[in-house]
Specification:
It is a single chain. By secondary structure, the chain is of the alpha+beta class. It has a single domain, classed as Hypothetical upf0131 protein ytfp, CATH 3.10.490. Helices cover about 25% and strands about 35% of the residues. It contains five helices and eight strands; from the N terminus they run ββαββαββαββαα. Strands 1-6-5-3-4-2 form a six-stranded mixed beta sheet, sandwiched between helices. The protein has a two-stranded antiparallel sheet with strand order 7-8. Strand 7 and strand 8 form a beta hairpin. Helix 4 crosses helix 5. It is globular. The chain starts with a strand and ends in a 10-residue tail after the last helix.
Length: about 190
C-alpha cells in the first residue's frame, strides 16, 4: 500500500481525543475525524483543577501508551499557531500532567493521508497519573469531581455524546456514562 504523508509545508494540526473534540476553544480551518496509533484514550488522570480539586479529585482523559485512539484532527491557520499553542498550554498544562508531543495522525477522509499533529499525552511519572482504575474507582472520582471547568459527570457524558456523533465506540466510557445518567445512578456489577 502506498501510504503518503500529505500536508502543506506550513500546516499546523492539533489532535483532540477528549474535551477538545466537543470544546476545542480555538479557531480552526478544518476538522477531520482522525486516528492516532501507539496510544489510547484512558480515564487515567486525576483532575485537581478543571474537574476536581486536590482534596476531591475528579478524573479526566489522557492519551496513555499502547493501542490506538480515534478522535479529531484540527487544521489551524499558520497565523494562529502561536496563539493556539499558548491557549492549549494554558488549558492542558496547568499542572504539567501532560507532555506536549508531535505524533502522526491518520485522517479518516483519506486512509492514506497522515500528518503530524500536536498532542497531549499523559506523563506516567506525574503524581496525577491514576493508571488503570476499576470501573467502581472511576465512578467514585467522577461522581465527586467538580472543578474550574464544571462537574466531572458532565465531562464524561459530553465526551461520550461527541464520540457517538463521530461514530466512535468506546465501551469503557459508554458503560461509565450509562452508570452516571439519571437520578438513580446504577451500581456496577462486580
Amino acid at each position: 500500500m502506498n501510504t503518503q504523508k500529505t500536508r502543506e509545508p506550513n500546516d499546523f494540526w492539533v489532535f483532540g481525543y477528549g474535551s477538545l473534540m466537543w470544546r476545542p476553544g480555538f479557531d480552526f480551518k478544518e476538522r477531520i475525524p482522525a486516528r492516532l496509533v501507539g496510544a489510547h484514550r484512558s480515564l487515567c488522570v486525576y483532575s485537581f483543577v478543571h474537574r476536581g480539586t486536590a482534596e476531591k479529585p475528579g478524573l479526566v482523559l489522557g492519551l496513555d501508551q499502547g493501542g490506538n485512539c480515534r478522535g479529531v484532527a484540527y487544521r489551524v491557520d499558520t497565523g494562529k499557531r502561536d496563539a493556539t499553542v499558548d491557549y492549549l498550554r494554558g488549558r492542558e498544562q496547568v499542572t504539567m500532567v501532560y507532555r506536549e508531543a508531535w505524533r502522526t495522525v491518520w485522517l479518516d477522509n483519506d486512509p492514506r493521508r497522515a500528518t503530524r499533529a500536536l498532542v497531549y499525552t499523559v506523563d506516567r511519572g506525574h503524581a496525577q497519573y491514576a493508571g488503570r482504575l476499576t470501573l467502581q474507582q472511576q465512578l467514585h472520582f467522577v461522581r465527586q469531581g467538580h472543578g474550574r471547568s464544571g462537574v466531572n459527570r458532565d465531562y464524561v457524558l459530553d465526551t461520550v455524546k461527541e464520540l457517538d456523533a463521530l461514530g466512535i465506540r468506546d465501551n469503557d466510557l459508554r458503560r461509565l456514562a450509562e452508570m452516571l445518567k439519571g437520578p438513580h445512578e446504577a451500581q456496577p456489577a462486580e
